[in-house]
Structures are given as structure tokens and as C-alpha cells.
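Q: Hi! First time asking for a complex rather than a single chain. Here are the components, and I think there are six in total. Is that enough to go on?
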Amino acid sequence: MPRTEEQNEKIKNERKQQILNAAMLLFSKQNPAEVSIAKIAKEAGVSKGLMYSYYESKEHLQKEIVFQCMDEIMSIFQMDKGAFVDAQDFRERIDRLFDHVQNNITTWSIYTQLLMQPSMKEVFMSPKVLEMMEDYQRQLYQYMTNQGFEDPEKEIVIMGALIDGISVQYVSAPEFIDLNVVRNHIKDVYGKEN
Amino acid sequence: MPRTEEQNEKIKNERKQQILNAAMLLFSKQNPAEVSIAKIAKEAGVSKGLMYSYYESKEHLQKEIVFQCMDEIMSIFQMDKGAFVDAQDFRERIDRLFDHVQNNITTWSIYTQLLMQPSMKEVFMSPKVLEMMEDYQRQLYQYMTNQGFEDPEKEIVIMGALIDGISVQYVSAPEFIDLNVVRNHIKDVYGKEN
Amino acid sequence: MPRTEEQNEKIKNERKQQILNAAMLLFSKQNPAEVSIAKIAKEAGVSKGLMYSYYESKEHLQKEIVFQCMDEIMSIFQMDKGAFVDAQDFRERIDRLFDHVQNNITTWSIYTQLLMQPSMKEVFMSPKVLEMMEDYQRQLYQYMTNQGFEDPEKEIVIMGALIDGISVQYVSAPEFIDLNVVRNHIKDVYGKEN
Amino acid sequence: MPRTEEQNEKIKNERKQQILNAAMLLFSKQNPAEVSIAKIAKEAGVSKGLMYSYYESKEHLQKEIVFQCMDEIMSIFQMDKGAFVDAQDFRERIDRLFDHVQNNITTWSIYTQLLMQPSMKEVFMSPKVLEMMEDYQRQLYQYMTNQGFEDPEKEIVIMGALIDGISVQYVSAPEFIDLNVVRNHIKDVYGKEN
DNA sequence: CATGAATGAGAGTTCATTCAT
DNA sequence: CATGAATGAACTCTCATTCAT
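A: Yes, that's all I need. Here is the structure of the assembled complex.
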């Protein structure tokens, strides 16, 4: 009784996720360039050969990881739900973001590490990502304007720098960094009820 | 007749700098782990073998670069000159920092890239660096207090996140980022004359 | 469909033996330290990389060879069969030993060469080898006493020196050395019927 | 005031000996193939470059060492003094030999190690060495005949094997081997007064 | 769909040797 | 005569990738 197409698809997706998880775990502990395909395969519990049924090459695997991280991170702001409706919505999204950083340090660690690499610039500059960015900018601009800021663009830059800065510090040395200082600061400054 | 001690010293220094420059150039364009000794040697115009007269191993070369970057960056704030005396001094130091980021993007790119790597944690946690950090914290704390901030520690965190965040963004995509927004914001907020 | 465990095992054993044979052949013709992994791989008809699937390192390969030679040589005296029962048994064992030297000059050449190297002392001093040596001493002591020798320990030393000396000479220049002179001398002196 | 030709010659010889001694010291502790020219130069207190004023290559240095060892060893028997005149003379020469082994374990260790190497066969087979060997054989044959041995050739083989065997054992593990057992045995058997 | 033996290019590293000084 | 910076070939070893099974 051969497996149905559907079952196969399911198995494939599970395997793919297995491999991705294994890779992410190892990448978070060591420079991806120093993690061998063999180690990932072992960690994922599959054979070396099988890796290439799911990922064309090591480079592709790395890029897919960055994309997945990006998707995950972007989804936090729930851009699909439309613009930030009000200050409460804004504060909730900020909380979701900071919670995510705190609870998914592995994801963020890999994401930061990989994004720092010049070779990943093309991922960063892909249409898909750029579009997301623009959406994010537009919605935030709208919100900042509503909040009465004189120079919304400036505030977006400041807020972005704050978030990126504290995240980078946090993944580098989570034991020394308290995310809440910045979290609260952002909520105070940008999430005030009118 | 053999070269004098002096002549040898001079040659060695020149060669060492040559290699360092080549390595930094390449590291800024590609993940250091993926830059081979052969490539660095070629870029520096020396033989592969000679690399090992000047650097015990690739790892040592990498670490020396991080340390050098760190020294350079730390020296910007001129902690040796003592605490920030007044707002003007503060603003000058901030300017020096931002100028440095802008003019030494290579240094900052490598520095950020390497520091993101788990294996570099030990460099970051070395006594020398930690001591510098503490100095920096202490002097800034003093300054923030003088400026009349209620919660100086919080302000240090915020300012640090801002600087790190904008720097990371800048080295990732200098063509899209305008450092001056954050530079002026910091000078406005923290560098006001009393 | 993947190969069965059994098939893999078989392949691995064959390959391992192939490599061992190649290494021994080359080691017998040249100082092992001067025989490169590449040469061994070529002689064995496998790729350089594959060598490391079977032997962790060159050092491991060398040591495995010494151990194998040692086992082979030790097994000649068939210590497991118990003490030398009588003069005929003694003579038979001596013959087996000399036949082995004559027919396995490669083994003996490597063995002698490697054992001369200071770094191999640890192999020589391993518990397993030392135990075998003691067994050998004990059994020979018993036999020499039975044969009526006044100073059995002395005879053991003399006989050992004779065997080692002629073996070393033989592997150095087999075309000049006639093993039988010493073989017969030992059988005459120590293998007389009571 | 330039050095005279004579002084230069003296300096050269001293330097040469310096290098030789350094090399022998290191070779006795490590497989010659693993001792670098740099290490020898350092041990000898000269520059790497100078090594090549005295020895054409590493190989030549090694061969010169074997030759020197051989000369030293051969001189012990004082073949130049002519045949063994009587049993006392024989016993004295045997004593000189065993004393030398005991007091110059470094020399013997290198000598044995190097002679075991197939590449050194040519040294062993050189006319000079072969001639020495023949002299030794002839003189010993004469002596053994005088001593009344029926088969002098056989006795020469036996004695040679004994000496080589115990020497090899001694340099391999001096702490376990008592040279005197064989020394006395040889003097007893072959050095009896008629 | 799954395996892991096998490959080969290239990595880091060492070292005998050369040669400008 | 003496130095040691410099070279380049060769070394040990790793690893992404392939493919027979």
C-alpha cells in the first residue's frame, strides 16, 4: 500500500523542518561556516545524502534559514493585519517582538550572525524583503503621524536603531542585557495614549 | 653581512601591517571563516608560508584583528583623558565616534561580524575589554548624573542601543542609512548645555 | 535501496586491509615518517580522503600497524598453548619463528624500524605487550630449568639477544645473512633431547 | 687583521662539530625525519642559513652522522692496530665495545635507528664500510681459528648476532637490559686463555 | 525514498632551501 | 662568514558533494 501523495508531502515537510531545526541549533552554537553538513545530518538523524534531497546545497540551506528567520520575525508585527490601529495595538506588537527575542534567542542569534555577513546582502535586498520593509515603514509612518510626532521618519529611524541595537546586544550576551529597559522606553515614548 | 636587528624589525612591521590590511579588506567583504589564508597571502602579496612567520595560525590572526579593532574603537572615546567634562566634550566625543564609523566602515564591519560569532565571546569577555567597558560605564554614569538625568543607567542603555543599532544598520547597508539622524538625536538629548 | 549493514561491513573490511597492505609495503621500503598519506592512498588505489574514514590519522595508522605486527609475531610462539612441553616442542616453535622471519621480511622490517623510534616506546610499554613478555619469560624459564641449565635467566637473555640480533641483521641485508646458522645453533644448544 | 687560513679551518671544524652534536642530541630524542633543520640550528646556536655552508642538505647531514657513528664504533675495535693478538687483547676490545655502548647510548641509538632505515642501505653498502667489515671478519676469523674453534665463520655470526641483539635491546630500553650478561658470556666463550 | 562509501578540491600548516643583505 | 626573511612544494586533514546500491 504505497503512500499517498499527501502523506509523502507531509513526510517531506517534517523531514525538512527536522533538518532546519538541527541546522539552526548548531548554527546558534557555532559559526555556520564551521558547521559541516555531516554534523547537521547527524543532529537531524538523517543521512548525509538525504540532505541534498531537501536542500540543493549548504548555501541554499543557509539562505533558507535566513528567510525563515525573517518571515518569523516579520510576522510578529503582523503587518498583514494592517496598520497599527492605536497606541494599545502598538504596545502589544512591541511586546510581542520583545517576547519573541527573549524566547527565541537561537533564531535571533542566527539571524543577526547571518545578516552581518556580506554574502547575505542579496537576501536582505530581495524584493520580498524590501516590500515587507516598505510596508512596515509606511504603516509606522502613519502611526507616528497619528501620534503627533513632528518628524515621523526620524522617530522610525531612532526606534529601529533602538530595537536592532538592543537585540544585537542581547544575543551577544543575554546574561548581561535587560531587554525591558528598552522595551519600556519604546512603549513610553511611542505608545502613549493620546 | 646580515641585516641589522633594526632593519629586520622594520621589515617585520611592514610585512605584518601588509598582511593585516589585506586580511581586513577581505574580511570586510566576506565571512572571515570563508576567507582562506591563501587568499589573504595573495592579497598581501606574500607567500602562504610567510603568513605563519607573522601569525601563529588563522585563529590568531582573526583574534589580533578583533583586538586591534576594539582598541581603535575604544580609543575614540579617549577614556584615558578622563571623564566627560562637559556637554561640549560629550558632543565632541560623539562626533568622533560617528565620524569614525563613517570613515572606517571596514573596521566596523569586521568588528560587528566577528563579535557576532559565538567563538569570539572569549575576546569580548577578556579582562582588558571588560575593564574598558566598566570605565566607560562609570564615566558616562557620572556625566549623565551631572546632566540631571533621573535614571542615568537607563540612559546609558538607551544610548548604547542607539549607537550599536545604527552602526550595525550602517555597516550592513551604508547606502541606505543616514548616521546623522541618530548622531544629532544623541547630541540633542544627551549633549544639551546646562 | 541502501546497502545492508553486512555489505557495508564487508566493504569496510576489504578497504581497511587494502590500505594496511599498501602502508606496510611502503613502510618496509622507506622510513614510515617519510611515507605520505597520499602515497599510501595511491598504492592502495583509494582516494586520500578515504584514508581518514578508516584511520583517524597517520599516527593511528602507524600504531595499528605496529600492534598488528606485534600480534603476529607474538602469536608465533603460541603462548596460548601453554609452556614449552619438551625439546621437540621447543624446536618446532623456534622453527616457526625463523620461518616467519624468512617469509615475512616486510612485517619484521617495519616492526624493527618502528620499534627503534623513541615515539613508539609507549606501544612497546603497553600493558598488553608487557604481559605477553612476562608470559614468554615465565614459560621459557620453566623450560630452561627443565633442560638442566644452571642459570636459566642468563640463557633467556642470550637466546633473546641472538634472535633479535640475527633478525635485525637479516631485515637490514637479507641477501648477506643466513638465518640458519643461528637457527641451528639455538636448536642445538637449547633444544637437545634430555 | 684577517684570520689565517688555519684559524678559519679550526672555526669551521668547531662549527661543524657543534652542528653535528646538536643534531645527534635531537635525533636521539626524536625520529630524525621529524627534526627540522630550524630546530637543529637553534640547538647548535647558529642560523638556519649557516647550516648549508657545512652540510649540503638535511640528507647529507643525516648520512654524515651515520658515517661518524660508524667510524666511532669501528674505531673501538682498533682494527688499525692489526689482528687480535691474543685472548687478553680480545677481552679488552670486547670491554671497550660494551663500555662504549653503555656510555654513548645516544650514538648507538641514532646509529641503530638510522641503520634500520632502508634509505640508509647505501651507506651501509659503501666501499669504505664494506672494507672495514671485511677487515673485521678477516681478523676475527684468524683469532677464532687460533682459539681452536672448528667453525670460525659460525662463531663470528653468533658473536655478531649477540652483540647486535643486546645493543638493540639496550638502546630501546636501557632501564631493563643488563649488558653485562652478554659481555661476560662473550668473554667466557670466545676469550678463554689457551 | 534513503544510505554512507567514495571522491577531490582545497583548507591550514610545515619546512628544506635560497638569497639579499 | 653569517643572518633570517622569504619561498613554494608537499604535507596532513576536512568536507561539500556524488552515486551505486
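A: Residues 1-4, 7, 36-38, 48-49, 51-52, 57-58 of chain B lie near DNA strand E (CB under 10 Å from a C1'). Let me know if you'd like any chain examined more closely.
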